[in-house]
Amino acid sequence: MQRSATARVPARAAIAGNPSDGYLGAVLSVMVEDLAAEVTVNEHGPRATVPIVDATLAALADHHGDPSIRQLRAHSETSIPRSVGLAGSSALVIATIRAVNAFVGVEMAVTDVATLAHRIERVDLAIPGGWQDQIVQSHGRDCLMSFEGPAAADVVVTPVDTSRIPFFVAWTESPEPSGVVHADLRQRMAAESAGALRDAMHRSADCARRAREAIVSHSVHDLKEAINATYDLRASMMTLDPRHASLVAAARAHGASANSAGSGGAIVGVLPKAGEIFVDAMARDGHQILTWQREEPV
User: Fold this and answer.
1) How many separate domains does the chain show?
2) Chain mean pLDDT for the chain
3) pLDDT at 123 over 50
């Protein structure tokens, strides 16, 4: 019988605080369970030619000191839309790490998984960005992340129970790779030791903390305000794609809160009271939309 191992990693959506994760800030993120990457590894069968999966196999072979890992066959599938800001690339990386670890019988600490995934994306593949994706997807749960240093071990992770909150994510077929946005922002932050840009980044991090407080106190109103404020600060820090800005405007026009879920065009927020009307209206306008309301914490 052929041995195999499979791992599944959901997408994530940044509710509030992004993009301060790349600048020692704070971000509150949630798992989008209905969108996920799944990777299966075995010793036989056709070899996949997915660059990010191949890069992960190579990194794991070096990390574990086991050259045979490079020869494993990996089959990957994903329902996460590409380049819209829902962490599809890190979902593939972490799913591959987990599947290979299960296959070879090796356990890695959550922090080690995040660190390896971050190195693969940020160094090996030169994909710009912060630590948010690798941290939240390695933990696999909704959480507030406070970035207090340059390494995964410096991130304080506080689980957040977002069950019973009606969320949505929406996106259009106009993706923009996150590296396009992050590269310019990083250059500007490096050149500015103080000023309006850094002040806006600090205030964005405060939005993440306010969002957690709102969830703990069951104040949906305050949560929606923190979500909206994060997007408004984002708009003050960078030039946004007009198509993505119009998506946020459309959601807000129907009474929903809305923030960029990442840096590729997808948005996330809390559904308005007339949720079905909102979903129908967004779909009629040609937007993809997904809603959820969990009964139990993730």
Assistant:
1) 2
2) 92
3) yes
